[in-house]
Structure formats: structure tokens, C-alpha cells
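Key result, reporting period 2: structure in, sequence out.
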């Protein structure tokens, strides 16, 4: 669907800004939280999503395909590298891939999963200050990480900055289902059951899996996030709800001029 601004999305954007201000997304806080759960991150992702997260990444690679011209691909907030690795398998050496994250223990896990002598590199970098020149990548992605960036707009602007003219920026993020009664059961699971399972299995002392539903609840979604992408200079922004709206994939193009 093509996105158009409306008053409802503007109101949501303003309220989301206020709620985000009350959630601690400082770099030391987020780094420490993800470092504490890195050892169980992959297992819990698959367990808590009932393996649907694999489908979401697969769907992303089809709706945001690899650049046909062989341009490199950047996956920001890569975590343990699952999306970067998914693209790497499809690239078969045709595209160089780079995965960045600012949490070293997560990147250690990604490095272990990386095939030897591959065209895939992982490196530490802050998504708000990416260490790349302008217009370098034909495809720039972020999966379930943009909501953890302290300044959402600064993060989107960086994604757009390093994207090549005519390239694609893809944002895969959690969202809130709206179809009743599924939405009611999902909220019950997401807010009350998932955090307890995550806390028990990960042993996180700072209740990282309680942060997950809180960060999703305060993050702009659908029209509101699409509007932010448009405001950051991306064009033809579209979004695709996945699995009844549990996740949403946003796609924007950088102007070819």
C-alpha cells in the first residue's frame, strides 16, 4: 500500500514521541542489556516467536531483494547476524555484505556463525553514526533494531545517507496486531507471558524481555513510521504487515538524483 500522511498518524507520532522519552534508550543501557542476553539470544528468538522470525527474514529478502548490479548490502543493528546471513546465502558471492552493531558480545555470536572465507564482514558501529561514506550500499536493512536506536529519525537519516541513489532502505520491526480477538491474545502473550519466559531462560538481571514489549508499545508503527522515513528523504515508502501485523516491513527508495 502507498503511504499518505493523515491527522491520525500525526497524532500517534506525537504521542509516541512522548512515550519514547520515558523509556531509557541510552547507549550504555542498551549495550549492557543485549550483552547480558547474547548467549541465549538466538534460541529465545526462535522459541518466543515459534520460529516465525525465520519467515519474517525470508519474506524481507524477497520484498527487498539483493541489488541486481552487485552493489554491497549493509545490515545495521545486525545483532547475531541472522538477516545478514540470510542475504549472504542468497548472494552466493555476487554482493558483498556488511553487518554492523554496537554490542560486541552479539557480534561475537555473529562471527561464529559466519562461513569461512565469505564476502560477509561484521563490525562494531553505532547506527546513528555509521562509519561509511555517503551513497555506498544498494540495499540497507535493519531488523528489529531501529526501535532500540536512541534517536529514531537520526537512525533513519543514516540509513538513507549510506544508501546509493536508487537503492532501497528496508526496516523490519515489531508492530501491534489489530484484528480482534487475535490482538487480545497477542497482547496477553507479549506483555505478560513472553517477558517471564525470556527472563527465566536468559537469566537477564535487568529484565531485558520486559523492555521488548515496552519498546514496541512506544515505537511509531505503520503510517507513523512510514511518515518518518519519508521525512528523512526516502521516496515511495510502502509497508507490508506480516503474520497478522505482529511485524511490519517498511520499504523506501532513495532518490536516483
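The corresponding designed sequence is given below.
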Amino acid at each position: 500500500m502507498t503511504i499518505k500522511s493523515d491527522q491520525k498518524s500525526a497524532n500517534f507520532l506525537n504521542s509516541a514521541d512522548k512515550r519514547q522519552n520515558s523509556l531509557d534508550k541510552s547507549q550504555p543501557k542498551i549495550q549492557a542489556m543485549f550483552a547480558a542476553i547474547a548467549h541465549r539470544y538466538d534460541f529465545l528468538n526462535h522459541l518466543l516467536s515459534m520460529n516465525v522470525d525465520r519467515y519474517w527474514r525470508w519474506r524481507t529478502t524477497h520484498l527487498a531483494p539483493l541489488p541486481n548490479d552487485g552493489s554491497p548490502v549493509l545490515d545495521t543493528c545486525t545483532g547475531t547476524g541472522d538477516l545478514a546471513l540470510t542475504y549472504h546465502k542468497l548472494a552466493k558471492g555476487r554482493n558483498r555484505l556488511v553487518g554492523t552493531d554496537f554490542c560486541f558480545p552479539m557480534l561475537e555470536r555473529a562471527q561464529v556463525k559466519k562461513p569461512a572465507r565469505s564476502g560477509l564482514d561484521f563490525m562494531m558501529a553505532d547506527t546513528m553514526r555509521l562509519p561509511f561514506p555517503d551513497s555506498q550500499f544498494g540495499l540497507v536493512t535493519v531488523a528489529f533494531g531501529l526501535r532500540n536506536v536512541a534517536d529514531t529519525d537520526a537512525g533513519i537519516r543514516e540509513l538513507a545517507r549510506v544508501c546509493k541513489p536508487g537503492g532501497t532502505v528496508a526496516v523490519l520491526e515489531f508492530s501491534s496486531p489489530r484484528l480482534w480477538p487475535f490482538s487480545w491474545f497477542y497482547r496477553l502473550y507479549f506483555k505478560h507471558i513472553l517477558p517471564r519466559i525470556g527472563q527465566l531462560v536468559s537469566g537477564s538481571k535487568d529484565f531485558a524481555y520486559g523492555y521488548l514489549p515496552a519498546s514496541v508499545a512506544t515505537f511509531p508503527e505503520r503510517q507513523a513510521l512510514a511518515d518518518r522515513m519519508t521525512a528523512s528523504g526516502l521516496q515511495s515508502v510502502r509497508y507490508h504487515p506480516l503474520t497478522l501485523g505482529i511485524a511490519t516491513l517498511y520499504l523506501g527508495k532513495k532518490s536516483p538524483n
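The radius of gyration is 17 Å. Confidence is low (pLDDT under 50) at residues 1-21. This case is discussed further under Risks and Mitigation.
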